[in-house]
Prior knowledge:
It contains 9 helices and 11 strands. It has 259 residues and is of the alpha/beta class. The chain has a single domain, classed as Spore Coat Polysaccharide Biosynthesis Protein SpsA, Chain A. A 7-stranded mixed sheet has the order 3-2-1-4-9-6-10, with helices on both faces. Strands 5-11 form a two-stranded antiparallel sheet. The longest helix has 19 residues, at 172-190. It is globular.
Amino acid sequence: MSSIKLIIAAHKLCDLPVDKMYLPVHVGKSVHPDVYLPGFQSDNEGDNISLKNPYYCELTAIYWAWKNLVADYIGLVHYRRYFSNSSKKDIQKVLSSQEAEKLCNEYDLILPKKRNLLIETVYSHYDHTFDGKHFDDVRKIIENRCPEYLSYFDKHMKERKEHLFNMFIMKKELFHKYCEWMFPILEELETMYDLKNMDPFQARLIGRVSERLLDVWVEKNKIKFTEVGCAYFGKNQYLKKITGALMAKFFKKKYTKSF
Length: 259
């Protein structure tokens, strides 16, 4: 029987699945040392980048898992967003360890279903809502650091679907290879921006860019994957999201907050 650990990126107390496969991780613990989440693993223990959480978002949990967590399969979900095949919004009905093990026996990687951007490409949607320069800079880094990925990056920028949220479950060996590829790219991108003096919402660009790198890595390395539904345990603001996307595309009104 394989060991599977699915970390839950969280910054506050929340309802949790009872399944022992799940490991809640307090992200940004070094940024908010006064916040105590009982029963949560802190992301500032061992080798870590907890202080970078304002820019790297859930990646501080991914980095902690890469450097410190021991398991055959490692993955990430969020305190409000889980893998789930259930139509019920029940935290105890999310993906179970038994379901995960069955999928892991058949596939190297589990991802959430792709988001369809419809009238946008991956690049244009990001450029309209945030700043396409982030992708332009990443492209230069990839061209210099790992040019064998460049054509896959360019292809993904033109696509109209993408896997988001940095959610995955993958074999430990693949997880380590992915982190070894991704984090140096992001660290170089970080040096190009004065993140500390940026608006906090905009400064989260490292985390946002990373979401789009996963598909590039998966396609380049021909990783065998399957998709699982995604359950959101928060207030969905579909109208605001749709309105925001349309305002960004047609009226150049970029995002200034999360929806």
